[in-house]
Design a protein that fits this description.
Layout: E1 3-8, H1 12-24, E2 29-35, H2 38-48, E3 52-56, H3 62-75, E4 78-83, H4 88-96, E5 101-104, H5 109-134, H6 143-147, E6 157-164, H7 170-179, E7 185-190, E8 195-200, H8 206-220, E9 225-230, H9 239-250, H10 253-256, E10 260-264, H11 279-290, H12 294-305, H13 315-335, H14 342-357, H15 361-384, H16 390-401, H17 409-415, H18 420-431, H19 435-453, H20 458-464, H21 470-481, H22 485-498
Parallel strand pairs: 1-2, 1-3, 3-4, 4-5, 9-10
Antiparallel strand pairs: 6-8, 6-9, 7-8
Helix pairs in contact: 11-13, 12-15, 13-14, 13-16, 14-15, 19-22, 20-21
Amino acid sequence: MEGKWLIADRDLNEREGLKWLLKTSSIPVTKILLAATYQEFVVGFEQEKPDVVLLELDMISKEDWSTFRDLMQIYDPILLLTSAEGTFEKARLAIDMQALDLMIKPFSATKVKTAFQKALRKQKAKSQAIGTRHTPAYKDISYEALLISQAVAAENYHLAAFQTENSRVISTLHSFLAEYPFKDAHGIFALDDMVVVLFKETGQQLTEHCQKALRKWEEEFSEPLAVVVHKGHSSSITLNQKYLQTRKMLELTYYKGYRQVVEFGYSPDWVHMDPFLAPPEQRTWVDMLTNIDLEKIKMWLYDEFLQLNDPYPDPGLVRIRLTSILAQVRRYMKTYYLDENETYEQEYRYIFNSILYDKVLYRTVQNLILYIQKLFIGAQNSVRISKQDPIERGLTYIEANFSNRHLRLEDVAHYVDRNSSYFSHLLMSKTGSSFTELLTSIRMKEAKRLLIETNKPIKEISTEIGYQNSNYFSRMFKEVTGVSPRKYRMTKVDMKGSV
């Protein structure tokens, strides 16, 4: 039984000596890796995932001890330790790590070779256990029945899916579940991102058994685990259909988090959520950001995302909605030149990736709140050094006040502390449009939304977007869109109804 070995020791002579003893022994080895520092050890370990680790205990600092223990628990290599200190504390640490042996320096070649043989026997035992475990004891069930749509019914099986937040520990989870004393288990299947366990429907207290397995996992490992139990009694659907329903239900971890067991017996459905911010919501965000109102932002995000209940919206739509919010934050950054700061830019990319890929919603929301808080500090500093973009601030002001029928270029120029003629020049240079054209564009965009989404009369819409005369509004609307407000509404509503 060949395997990879990783030898980690700060002393070059010790490393080379241990490597030479291993190569000249009868131990079958495919690859020997060496590490001179703890950082090199971690990198080599995570890249190669060796079967046996021979490590100098003294190279691990107190700060690194916790991460080292977690690493060993998750990947579970055969562990041999060395140390220059023959103290009770070192022995206790070796016992705590369930090391196969602790060798105190200076050690003899005989002692080292004996430890090597111990590791070889342990490796063979683990290999045999894995071979026995993976022997198909459930010959009537295959991966194909689970993963491929077939006409055959699912018989009477319940299905439990176990998923860790970090997919790299799936093999460890599979080993853990294969050794766990489940009752009535009828198949264990390791997939890329989860482990599926089948149970006969005659089994009792399935959810309770899964909860006990979850607690046992948490006692041994630090990696968060979520469990979904499909207890539908219908044998009219295939095993593959039950698996697909369970996979979909696992997406609830996005809302509920990990470290829990969720039981269901139905096909989960998502409800629709508008993935984009409506213009009134955009104005709300402009106001909250402009006024540096962090508390209001917190309440808005909490109410919008952390008070959701079953049936939940499609997580994909929630992620898009969060990116719509991030677009408003991005504009705020540009207003104060914060996008030119590399630290803010790196954190912005981190938040963007959190929105797209983070598996738990509340974590993304908290990250976003903390980031906005940092931006507010940066913006206040930017104000103090008078490094503000007058055009971005002016556009923000126009969007927040377009419904004011008395809004003038002079008002906006005064707000950004610029001469009106100079500000008009800047506006045209940067946007390619005059103040009147920009204001009209914003008003018409809101008018289109109100015409489609509400039943408000044309006159009311005209007043709401800043026009005192509804006839003038209708004329302007037709110049921009080519049709009257009434015809626009009829056409869009008809199109919406025919979809």
